[in-house]
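Purpose: get a first structural picture of the assembly so the mutagenesis plan has something to point at.
Setup: two entries, given in the order below. No constraints added.
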Amino acid sequence: MTQVEMSLADVYAPIAAELDQARARFDEEIRSTRGFVNELCEQIKRYRGKMLRPALLLLTGKALGDLREEHVTLAAVVEMVHVATLVHDDVLDEADVRRRLTTVNALSGNEAAVMLGDYLISHAFHLCSSLNNQHASREIGATTNTVCEGELTQIHNRGNSHLTEAEYLDIVTGKTAALTGTCCALGSHFGEAPASTIETMRRFGTELGVAFQIVDDILDLVGSPEQVGKTLGRDLDLGKLTLPLIHSLENAGPEIRGRLEALIRGETAADRDGVHGILRRTQSIEYAKTTARGLVSAAIQRLHFLPDSPARTSLTAMAGFVLDRDH
Amino acid sequence: MTQVEMSLADVYAPIAAELDQARARFDEEIRSTRGFVNELCEQIKRYRGKMLRPALLLLTGKALGDLREEHVTLAAVVEMVHVATLVHDDVLDEADVRRRLTTVNALSGNEAAVMLGDYLISHAFHLCSSLNNQHASREIGATTNTVCEGELTQIHNRGNSHLTEAEYLDIVTGKTAALTGTCCALGSHFGEAPASTIETMRRFGTELGVAFQIVDDILDLVGSPEQVGKTLGRDLDLGKLTLPLIHSLENAGPEIRGRLEALIRGETAADRDGVHGILRRTQSIEYAKTTARGLVSAAIQRLHFLPDSPARTSLTAMAGFVLDRDH
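Result (structure tokens, whole complex):
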């Protein structure tokens, strides 16, 4: 069976049992004695997605040896951190739809969404502190520090049409890839891997995370809302510069650049067809895709040191999925 | 020197050095390599208040023996948790002014405020994980879980004119008193106190926290904005029922009750003078003050087991301050 033919269920097969356990641990941790809190939590569980981060953590651990209790707990922790950032992201982005479902903020108000995000972050750290030593708490704490700095940097740069590719990659590395990198680092650490292996796997996860975010940003610009299942075009509406736009600004003539800059500063309303036309002319979607492809291929190269195993095959396949996904 | 004559500086004298160290640890932990993040953090530092929670933690530790490194670190942690909740609270309350200064959300937008709150929560857990064992991480995680449930319960009950006093006390115990209780519990734990002492001190901190919140809620209704230094009357605007209103609803005749209920449901705009008149008629401010006074006096009784010391005198004085404060 080639990677291309693998479904997500095939990819997750080597860790299917542990992924189920992680889901159960997630649900158990956030369960409340208050009915309406559980109802709010149901809203998030409904849009719990592909469990990409827990899968990365578990597959990394599995590729290096046997999975332990800590892996399962941490798989639940990283998903909880991720879902918390989604809930707060939707408040920041004023998004109404995610994974084809109404977001918490749209359904229950911004106040409930802010507090539900806090509830999830708090439970993530609480669950993490149930482990026997501080290693994971420190790693998760350092990671969420970085995630927040990435988000703050992005907010700070809203409407900044001079954002460079390097600055964009720095933001994306913080807000998205730090966590995927940490998933692979924690998966290796609790697989008792040596420091060099942990760092190699962290880089694999980081490159995958950056590629993932680039694809996400491409979809926000040119995806179809039906396929992607969430509110699109928000980046431009909110003055967020992403890789295709940065490339287009650098490569467009002065007239087009002027139009794009006015859009980014919010002086003119975004006209989706017009933006698509510009991006086509500067071949900027292709450029961003090539960048993502380069990152994924570098990431896959890093896996060569791992012994051949179904888990290694799955990690490679996951890297491929990042490029092919349409949502 | 009697308690009444003590200034806050006198009260904090037994722990002045450690409180300074805690402030320094706080600043060091949240310092970023990014200038604009530090500028955002300056906004919060400016309205860092009376350091009530760190003082409770340190005074409890001091009253039971010598202070350790852990006390100082945890004093910074509890203040960071508290400031994070303030920043998110101001988003929830749409408040413009706190401690006489413009709030982060009003100054930099809700997005930056949500993310800055997350940044502080993350750093609080990160700093907490620097300790040698998991005890404090577990305690802080469990406490923030409770704080969030308290806040969620409050949001859930907006506009509910049937909220009972017991339900109100439950909300307040979660959103405010759980943290002050934990301060005293952690202060004792790292003073190597036995379990019974830790629980006694937790109760002291919890009672103080509930009394503090009742006084806060009274000030929101009848304080003067100049004295209190923050946006007032928000509770009623947001349909939040607090102790004086609950008492008034229970004790007013049907006509007045009807008017209050319409206010709480947001059907009529809050008229400050009218509300004051109603609260006077039902003596509800007096009732709430008596409740707070009862809690403070019960809390002070709990301290009798402590050996006589300046720290014990300060804890007693702090309890008194809760009642007398006008902001």
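The longest strand of chain A covers residues 97-98.
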